[in-house]
TrEMBL record:
InterPro entries: AAA_GajA/Old/RecF-like (IPR041685), ATPase_AAA_core (IPR003959), Bact_Antivir_Def_Nuclease (IPR051396), P-loop_NTPase (IPR027417). SUPFAM superfamilies: P-loop containing nucleoside triphosphate hydrolases (SSF52540). It comes from candidate division MSBL1 archaeon SCGC-AAA261G05. This is Uncharacterized protein. Residues 6-84 form the Endonuclease GajA/Old nuclease/RecF-like AAA domain. Residues 127-257 form the ATPase AAA-type core domain. GO terms for molecular function: ATP binding; ATP hydrolysis activity.
Length: 648
């Protein structure tokens, strides 16, 4: 094992490059810096590389390396190692070692190898034979052979298990540098330049590391075009190398920070996530995010291989568990809409954003063509407004675009346009309130026990999986709601949060005014107070009493002949398409109790439900135009929890 000179444990920067002021502590053997473009990752690597550029007591400093390119600002870089620290500073001109004349020699012995992003790409254009020959030209045969063996072993593990060795007189003619491969029984020796650019780049990068033998290795965007399996192997090799070298990598690829890949080495790995959320204060990093469920953590999501059609992002891991419980129940209750529950679960996933760090991980969320939705607790309302504005004003074109949505209709519109990712705050302060508990850790088991899914959560799932836009909702109907309804006949009033009909005769009709609906969902809880009359939903109506509309509901619930029926009123004449007695059937309905009636209609297909039970699926095209929704009932009927959706 190489004897490392010193280990960097902390780095402090002031007015350097894109960074106003920042300190990274807790540096380890292997350090991963992840974040979007222009977030300051490369600035960290360049600051560390100033060690290598230190010569004759100074290190060069360009105008572009001063924060805001303002030479009046004093630049300061403090390197803290295990047993001592060094400070480079400059008020103008180059960086100098501050008040440490006796440390110049020791500081100058520390070596770095900085592979910038452009340098890694340039490997692909190099003549590999000549490049390797140049690197090996000053080494003896024994050292050359030792390094060749290391490269062979690395490439076989990372890129191609068939690679058998680096052959030919490496110290000699460049064109003789080869890689021997053994894909079957036949041995071939293709030139290194005939291998893919990823293999060639790896060979040159690893050779530079072994030949230069630095104390610190800096790799900017080191993915090298490797496939997912090769990437994992490359990451593992870098972690192994961190026994001998201190390594820093910057990346946008979240698979590099998936702890599943380095769980056996977690004590030697530090992760720094650079966020653009707090752009006013520079690029804020935070260290060693503790995540109990990496598979559902957005910051560690290997998005290149696990993207779904639909993504729901919530704050923390407890929120994931609660939303998963509600999603499972939702799919069971609405199974008639989906081929199978498993199909939806395979196409959708719920991820968390690291709890209180949620704002920093928004940059990991994929945009179109994927459907992504951010759902936060209601107490995040103010912060969400601020964070969305920061992202919008950041000026980074490569980041997702977010929209703070104040209601579910805005969420639906945002998802349908695919231009922006909706960020929605729940009506309640905390998800645990929907489950009726105070401790969020107790919310998941309670979510499974509840009689029904909270309406707001169900509506979010409807938007994401069924594609509707809610155009009206009234859980509790007061007198102020009545101006949204148009009475066609009857005696209607709002009382105790419910819409009541008290007229003694039949054919009482009321419709929602303000919009026409052709395709959608109409749902309400209905109570036949005395059970002696009918109570029905109507849709695609013209608003006139018993004129033109589709109709579905029940009647005679207090008699020996209770019925459920569905049909159409055309020019004032009812045409019952379906009708049956339910006295001994699977619907248990009675007077003085609320039941949920629902109609879903799209084109010529009409599905009707009672208490989430599909009663009929009907095909009919007698009324194809958009129309009003409302109620048709007899005497003494109550309505509540009215919801109307319009299909996108």
């Amino acid at each position: 094992m190489k004897q490392r000179l010193m280990k960097l444990t902390e780095l402090s920067l002031k007015n350097y490059s894109t960074i106003d002021s920042q300190t990274l502590d807790g540096l380890s053997d292997f350090n991963i810096i992840i974040g979007p473009n222009n977030s300051g990752k490369s600035s960290i690597l360049k600051a560390i590389d100033k060690i290598q550029q230190f010569e004759s007591g100074r290190s060069p400093l360009n105008d572009t390396e001063v924060y805001l390119e303002d030479r009046r600002r004093a630049v300061r870089i403090i390197y803290t190692f295990e047993d001592q620290s060094f400070e480079l500073w400059s008020s103008s001109g180059d960086l100098r070692l501050k008040n440490e004349e006796n440390k110049k020699e020791q500081f100058g012995k520390i070596t770095t190898l900085f592979c910038e992003e452009g340098r890694l790409n340039s490997y692909k254009k190099e003549d590999p034979g000549r490049y390797l020959s140049g690197l090996f030209s000053d080494l003896g045969y024994e050292k050359t052979y030792e390094i060749s063996e290391k490269i062979e072993d690395d490439l076989r593990k990372i890129a191609d298990p068939n690679i058998q060795g680096v052959s030919g007189p490496i110290v000699g003619k460049a064109e003789t540098v080869r890689l021997a491969c053994e894909p079957g029984e036949r041995v071939i020796e293709p030139e290194l330049e005939r291998h893919g650019s990823g293999v060639r780049s790896l060979a040159l990068l690893l050779t530079e590391i072994y030949v230069n033998d630095p104390d610190i290795i800096l790799l900017d965007e080191p993915e090298l075009g490797l496939n997912p399996a090769g990437k994992r192997c490359f990451l593992q090799r870098l972690i192994d190398l961190s026994d001998d070298y201190q390594i820093f990598i910057s990346t946008q690829d979240s698979s590099f920070v998936n702890p599943l890949f380095w769980k056996d080495d977690e004590n030697k790995v530090s992760v720094f996530h650079y966020s653009i959320s707090r752009v006013i204060q520079g690029r804020e990093a935070f260290v060693n995010v503790e995540v109990d469920e990496p598979k559902t953590f957005a910051g560690y999501l290997p998005q290149s291989t696990t993207l779904k059609d639909a993504h729901i992002y919530v704050e923390g891991k407890e929120d994931v568990r609660v939303f998963r419980a509600y999603l499972q129940r939702y799919l069971e209750e609405k199974s008639e809409h989906f081929d199978s529950k498993g199909d939806v679960l395979n196409r959708a996933e719920i991820y968390h954003l690291g709890g209180s760090n949620w704002e920093h991980f928004l940059s990991t969320i994929p945009g179109a063509p994927y459907s992504s939705l951010v759902v936060l607790d209601g107490n995040m309302e103010g912060q969400a407004e601020t964070v969305v504005k920061r992202y919008r004003d950041s000026g980074y074109d490569n980041l997702p675009s977010f929209l703070k949505c104040d209601n579910l209709e805005e969420v639906s519109r945002s998802l349908s346009t695919e231009d922006e990712i909706p960020v929605y705050c729940l009506q309640k302060d905390d998800i645990s309130e929907y489950a009726g508990v105070e401790d969020k850790r107790e919310a998941e088991p309670q979510a499974w026990k509840q009689d029904s899914i909270p309406g707001e959560i169900e509506d979010l799932f409807d938007i994401l999986f069924l594609g509707g836009v809610k155009v009206y909702q009234a859980g509790s109907i007061d007198s102020g709601e009545l101006n949204k309804w148009q009475e066609a006949n009857g005696n209607w009033e709002a009382r105790e949060g419910e819409l009541h009909q008290t007229h003694k005769s039949g054919n009482n009709v009321i419709t929602l005014s303000g919009f026409q609906l052709k395709d959608g969902i109409f749902e309400a809880d209905i109570n036949s107070v005395d059970g002696g009359a009918g109570q029905q939903l109507i849709w695609r109506g013209d608003g006139d009493v018993a004129s033109n509309y589709y109709i579905f509901g029940t009647g005679n619930l207090s008699s020996d002949n209770p019925i459920v029926r569905a049909g159409v009123y055309k020019d004032g004449k009812p045409q019952w398409i379906k009708k049956k007695n339910i006295k001994n059937g699977d619907l248990e309905l009675g007077q003085n109790e609320f039941h949920t009636y629902k109609a879903e209609f799209k084109g010529n297909v009409h599905k009707v439900y009672i208490d989430n039970h599909l009663v009929w699926k009907i095909k009919d095209d007698k009324i194809e135009e958009a129309g009003l929704v409302g109620f048709h009932c007899g005497r003494h009927t109550s309505f509540r929890n009215v919801k109307v959706w319009k299909w996108n």
